[in-house]
């Protein structure tokens, strides 16, 4: 199933500061075709919050940083 991230969102994510954790999350989710709704549910935040992170508009709250990092790590190939 394709979640069809818009070209605008993909472009905004590419132009955002790639060092930001939320932008890194966006890159992983876009490349793995993981839905924003699934990410939001997993991390306990709204879909709008996820979009803001993806675009570098805001950063994950310190209380969810570990969860975001673990989510990103779950997509890395196992050694």
What percent of the residues sit in helical stretches (DSSP H or I)? 55-70%
Point out poorly predicted stretches: none
Query: What is the end-to-end distance?
Result: 27 Å
- What general outline do the C-alpha atoms trace? globular
Number of strands: 0
Secondary-structure element order, as H and E? HHHHH
SS field, number of helical segments:
5
Average pLDDT level: 93
Question: What share of residues are in beta strands?
Answer: under 5%
Could you give a short account of the major beta sheet? none
C-alpha-based Rg, rounded: 12 Å
Structural class: mainly alpha
Notes on the structure:
The chain has helices at 7-15, 21-32, 36-43, 47-54, 65-73. It is mostly helical.
Task: Note the topology.
Elements: H1 7-15, H2 21-32, H3 36-43, H4 47-54, H5 65-73
In short:
The protein is an all-alpha fold and 79 residues long.
Provide the descriptors you would attach to this structure in a database record:
globular, 79 residues, mainly alpha, 5 helices
């Amino acid at each position: 199933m394709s979640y069809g991230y818009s070209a605008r969102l993909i472009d905004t994510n590419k132009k955002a500061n790639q060092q930001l954790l939320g932008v890194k999350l966006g890159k992983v989710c876009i490349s793995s075709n993981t839905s924003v709704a699934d990410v939001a549910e997993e991390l306990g935040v709204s879909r709008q919050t996820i979009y803001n992170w993806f675009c570098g508009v805001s950063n994950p709250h310190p209380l969810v940083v570990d969860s975001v990092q673990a989510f990103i790590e779950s997509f890395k190939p196992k050694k």
